[in-house]
Amino acid sequence: MIKRKLQNQIKNQCFKGKIILLLGARQVGKTTLLKQLIKEIDEPAIWLNADEADILQELNSAVTSTQLLHLVGSQNKLAIIDEAQQVNEIGKKLKLLHDTFPEIQIIATGSSSFDLLNRMSEPLTGRKRTFHLYPISFQEVVDNTNLLEAKRTLEQRMIWGSYPEVVNNPGHEKEVLIELSQSYLYKDVLMLEGIRKTTLLEKLLQALAFQVGGEVKYNELANAIGNISAVTVEKYLEVLEKAFIIFKLPALSRNMRNEIKKGKKYYFYDNGIRNVIISNYAPLEMRMDKGALWENFLIAERMKQNQYKSHTPNVYFWRTHDQAEIDYIEEYDGTLSAFEFKWNKINVTFPASFQTAYPNHKLQVVNRENYTSFIGDF
Hints:
Number of domains: 2
Strand order of the largest sheet: 2-3-4-1-5
Number of helices: 17
């Protein structure tokens, strides 16, 4: 079992007067992490899984602090509500529990943002600490094995991704990914009214998978899929973001007249999910989309690393109408760090127009020889 970076961070936040929210896609390892945490904390605890119909019914029915305490149990010092996004008015109930019984540490997990199902009617401003758990990171593999082992499995991670069950079942990655995508991936999304058309959802994700690294336009996606409007495409993409399947990178635009101003690119949180959507498991040497896989892998890994280190730069891509572009940009404390991603080590010239427009910048090409410093603490 790979120990997750967040485990110690969450443990250190326990019993400090905050509700802890642990968010992340289904099957990403939230339950495993919290079960290990319970062992380490060694306090009376209760686990309420809202995926269980009877428990969900009880949680939905409890509306007073007395009813909630009856569910949690006054003897318990730790209360975990798993898949809490399914509970009606979950924000109001978490706030009520926290304010009435501050001695009980509440941890709520969600496989989607709580506002996806419109459950967070009560804001928890000032009362919560939110953590995001992602598929296993490159740094976590290094921490639990060593750098050489992590580098040896680079191509497997680019093809099969890093969901815990995938990593822990070498040789059976394809079956695990197919089961994951068919049984869990869209579960929260398909609970929404108006998101019942699974075939449209799959076609949209396939179109995105083939456009990784490319600019996405809603009307072009709608035309490619057919029988769907650009407005519906935008709505579906927003839902898929809130379910932690994809994430968006906006365009940087400030100084130049011919910069793309409202552009966006979408990436998958996990390469394996991207590949299972298009049913392509071919090894890297046989693939035409190697560059897209490399770009998706690096940006997703960088995002994990930044989140786990509580490093929060603004992130962008950059492109002009005459096709000058930069893959990925971070802005932090007024400085822009621009990155180009290349699978092979080749010479890259950054656009002079960018360097002139944004003089306070750093430039780096990330390839197979230097990528570890971009996605880890090395």
